[in-house]
Amino acid sequence: MGKVYVFDHPLIQHKTAMIRDKNTGTKDFRQLVSEIAMLMTYESTRDLALEDATIETPICETTVKVLKGLDVAIVPILRAGLGMVDGILQIIPNAKVGHVGLYRDPDTHEPHEYYCKMPDDIDKRKIFVTDPMLATGGSAVAAINFIKERGGKDITFMCLIAAPEGIEVLQKAHPDVDIFIAAKDECLNEHAYIVPGLGDAGDRIFGTK
What we know:
By secondary structure, this protein is of the alpha/beta class. Strand 6 (about 100-105) and strand 7 form a beta hairpin. Helix content is about 30%, strand content about 35%. The protein is globular, with a radius of gyration of 18 Å. It contains 6 helices and 13 strands. Helix 1 packs antiparallel against helix 2 and helix 2 (about 25-45) crosses helix 3 (about 85-90). The chain has helices at about 10-20, 25-45, 85-90, 140-150, 165-175, 200-205; strands spanning about 5, 50-55, 60-65, 70-80, 95, 100-105, 110-115, 125-130, 135, 155-160, 180-185, 185-190, 195. The termini are far apart.
């Protein structure tokens, strides 16, 4: 079973509190989402494999630890997941970026694909799927289904706010996927919004309604 990691870092908690505030404007919200994603990436890459390499410092030759030839892909779930990409690229600038486009039926809340584009070598990459909100879990499950259908194997899901219902659904559908969360909330309301949540992340990132 994949692990579920809820961050307790003071900076992540503080910045998450700020994005919850309804008075936080679009510019600040967008910047904060990027900063939280960057901080989360630091912790979620803790288990990346290392190998020895020999280099020369200005003083002498020495053996150091470097990443073991690992290629990374970031796959945001459109559109809100885009808000987390720049923060991750600050830490892993050589990562390739795929995209999964989903829309949620307003009546059934079921996700439907309208776009999916992956790097050609997605099967060889460590994949970070991003979406600020894990509510019902339907979009996350569907997106990871599409990625696996295209060869993706080593997948981590990263979100800012998660409901217990969404975590359970994602774990059941994809028990091999680790889940990294900035904050775990109480529940979903009758409209499938996370409570207390932060509203619609996509609208707040892009300034739409």
